[in-house]
Design goal:
Layout (H helix, E strand, L loop, with lengths): L3 E4 L2 E4 L4 E7 L8 E7 L6 E6 L5 E3 L7 E6 L4 E6 L8 E11 L2 E6 L3 E6 L1
Parallel strand pairs: 2-11
Antiparallel strand pairs: 1-3, 3-8, 4-5, 4-9, 5-6, 7-8, 9-10, 9-11
C-alpha cells in the first residue's frame, strides 16, 4: 500500500561517494521506522542503517563512520549519504518502511537500486 521509490545508485570508483534517496507515497511517512538494507549476489539481505521517526539512528559496523542515514518527514523522503565506498559495498540497496500497530509489524519495500563500487 505504501509505495517507495528509490534513486541515486550507480557505478563509482573505490573511495567515491553516492547519495541514495527514497520517496514514500503517503503523508504518514513520519510514523514509520525507515531503513536501508542491502543484498550482494550470493549473500543474505542485511541491514545497513535505520532511523526512527524522531531521528535515532543505528548502523551496521561495516558502514559506521562512512554512511549517514537521514530523513525529511515533511518531504516523505529517506536519504543515505555513502562516503569512502569500498568494493564490498557493491549490492542492491533497498528502502524499507516499518510500522508496528497493535503488536503486528508492517513492512514495505522499494524496488532496489544498484550500487557498484569498482577497484
Amino acid at each position: 500500500q505504501v509505495q517507495l521509490v528509490e534513486s541515486g545508485g550507480g557505478l563509482v570508483q573505490a573511495g567515491g561517494s553516492l547519495r541514495l534517496s527514497c520517496v514514500a507515497s503517503r503523508d504518514i511517512f513520519g510514523l514509520y521506522i525507515m531503513g536501508w538494507y542491502r543484498q550482494a549476489p550470493g549473500n543474505q539481505r542485511e541491514l545497513a542503517a535505520t532511523i526512527t521517526p524522531n531521528g535515532r539512528t543505528t548502523y551496521e559496523d561495516s558502514v559506521k563512520g562512512r554512511f549517514t542515514i537521514s530523513r525529511d518527514n515533511d518531504k516523505n523522503t529517506l536519504y543515505m549519504q555513502m562516503n569512502s565506498l569500498r568494493p564490498e559495498d557493491t549490492a542492491v540497496y533497498y528502502c524499507n518502511a516499518r510500522r508496528y500497530i497493535g503488536g503486528l509489524r508492517y513492512d514495505y519495500w522499494g524496488q532496489g537500486t544498484q550500487v557498484t563500487v569498482s577497484s
